[in-house]
């Protein structure tokens, strides 16, 4: 009787535990989402709800246009307010994913009568999508190793500083949605690989389409997945599920990528995509080989192989030779400049100074790894080992993902962002395995009897002991819930398997009780350190909006709002059609906030145009006036940090102006500006440097501030202190002298009599070889 | 040497043919559809070689639609084939429904891209 009754209560208790486990994991996921959202709100609390930096302003302006004019106008928009006089085709050169996402959210909310402004939606898009990204990480890691690892990876991703740095509230940039799209695409690929369902393959292609819409980094996906397929084939893990996971993705994915105007025909013509086509052909060959092997006897198969190999080799060589000739005929071998600089890190510094000048494109230093992924840096190797036991298709994929992303993050600091999800997945797996082993040992040591229900009660007690020993930090609570949940999950499995077998298995992994408890406590402390570091990084290091600066001093908090002050001055005191010239960093902000036409902006697609502006900044006043006048420029904007010690001002960026200008106009020679190999602005500076426009516009009347002209950034007194401007006049200097705006003086109406004499005389001075032109300034 | 290779080739051809005849009819229909799709793609490539590739998006969408349906049909064949142990829990109706859905998405994209 008792034997008949006990299975039923056991079955309902297992069902209860399953249900409880599911509810608990849903609750944990909701909490993880809230955590991911709230840790990114420091900048809104410390400063205000404002868009940060430079690139987000462009995205914000595009989203404003989209919300005001609708999608057809957006798709066909030709922007004449930037890159004067060339203009820019916005519809064809922008990745539309981010703006369309934010625009859709704004439109949906407004049609539900929730009147959020476009700016609010833009500021908060990134935190919302980071919550989605942590849920996607949970799904991905669950496919690889199970839901315990999934929860661990999700909570790690919610807080990892590298991802926070690009997705704080206000950082309205492509990566905000692209990382979510990346993880979601990988999840669907692994899901298709595990289930072999064509439905998930379709969803995978659609998620890849969203990724292509969002970020140029989609080439990482379309190269990583073929690499993984090749790895599976080479290690003998070919299966029909692999074919279903890969082949529809290539066809649908290429078509969908070609639909996005930015990519267009590059989806089939550039070398970044050739890997996918090559592996597409390879997988078909392999599939055919397996099929024929299945229907032939082994002897006939050997005959077939010798025949095919002899004929096939010849054909293969011919085809490969043609391909190589085609690809080698283009000067870069078909790769774009940015991709080449990833493969060969020294390429950009030799050939493309603009790519080399962006600070995000420099290789990272060792401390930045510990700053950005902290504790995960040494959990990742443990995770890699855990992935090998047992090795499945999905775990080989995450191993390949982390290896590739470590390489690329070593090339460019910006790509540490791609490393972050991989590191979180690996560390989640490692932590989950560690917790499994320790809690299993504790349970085994405390349980000891042959009845699995006794084990269950003991495991209910044991994790709670650990839970009460921990601190009451929020991260701790999640860790506690995780360990108790894993305890319940662990003893769900013995209920399914026969208990003798499970005890035999567990006996091999059992550690002494004290060791396990101490190890568990140490792991929880490790998690605590990670949480403390992440919160500190989010609050102090990555929440600065760059457009508003603050500094603490003895007399309180100083706020430097010079940028917005000057853009507001520009928009109120100049005509709508006036052109403003500045270095390309400030182009996006000028068009978005001051609403004036600019000459060059952060898109940096035209090197010659930027070199023209750089040459103008490096030339003496007269030559600079000529250049700017030919571009119809009315105002010149210069950022100067010498009064307050702001280090990212134009004088510090001057070396790039000289290099980029000198790359196109050979009369600008870098050696003219260097004294002993250094750019100097003090009394030892070269005369070319002291006469160039950038020096004059930065330091005009600077000596009036403290009588000596001491530059706080360069830490010297300036070389030329008292000078007048002949071709420019100062119209605005912001409160802390950070932004200075100058107006071009108009050409003189009356040309003095000397011009007629100059025409008959031969030119005597070397500089004024302009006697053939009427120079109104002489 | 050449004679033995031709004899081997003929033997191989006969073995392949006899093995293929044994496959069920529904799979043979799918194979016929795949061959037709690939053949259409080859005709399009030949036409492009003759006439030139403008407009390129039409050419791409035409060729990729043929290759796409061929690939999806091969996936359907994999899932419906009774000899595949991995898919024995999958009902053939579900496989066909997935096939239809994927084709719908593919052709929606094609029609958009055709220009």
Descriptive overview:
Chain A has about 775 residues and is mainly alpha-helical. Chain A is built from 37 helices and 13 strands. Chain A has a five-stranded mixed beta sheet, sandwiched between helices. In chain A, helix 22 crosses helix 24 (about 415-445). Mean pLDDT of chain A is about 85; it is low at about 450-500 and about 760-770. Chain B is mainly alpha-helical. Chain B has helices at about 1-20, 25-50, 55-80, 90-115. In chain B, helix 2 (about 25-50) packs antiparallel against helix 3 (about 55-80) and helix 3 runs antiparallel to helix 4 (about 90-115). Chain B is flat. Chain B starts with a helix and ends with a helix. The interface of A and B includes residues 201, 202, 206 and 304 of A.
Provide mean pLDDT of chain A, rounded: 83
Number of helices of chain A: 37
Secondary structure: number of strands of chain B? 0
Tell me the helix content of chain A.
55-70%
- Show unreliable segments of chain B: none
Produce a short descriptive summary:
The complex is a heterodimer of chains A (778) and B (115). Chain A is mostly helical. Helices cover 65% and strands 6% of the residues of chain A.
Topology:
The complex is a heterodimer of chains A (778) and B (115).
Chain A: H1 2-5, H2 7-39, H3 42-46, H4 55-69, H5 71-75, E1 78-79, E2 88-89, H6 90-93, H7 97-111, H8 118-145, H9 147-159, H10 161-165, H11 175-195, H12 198-214, H13 218-234, H14 240-259, H15 266-269, H16 274-295, H17 298-329, H18 337-343, H19 347-351, H20 353-357, H21 366-373, H22 376-387, H23 393-411, H24 416-447, H25 452-469, H26 474-496, H27 499-509, H28 513-541, E3 549-553, E4 556-560, H29 562-573, E5 579-581, H30 587-594, E6 597-598, H31 607-618, H32 621-630, E7 635-639, H33 654-664, E8 674-675, E9 678-679, H34 687-691, H35 693-699, H36 703-706, E10 710-711, E11 716-717, E12 728-733, E13 739-744, H37 754-760
Helix pairs in contact in A: 2-8, 2-9, 2-26, 4-7, 4-30, 7-8, 8-9, 8-11, 8-24, 9-24, 9-26, 11-12, 11-14, 12-14, 13-16, 13-23, 14-16, 22-24, 23-24, 24-25, 24-26, 24-27, 24-28, 25-26, 26-28, 29-30, 31-32, 31-33
Chain B: H1 2-21, H2 25-51, H3 56-80, H4 92-114
Helix pairs in contact in B: 2-3, 3-4
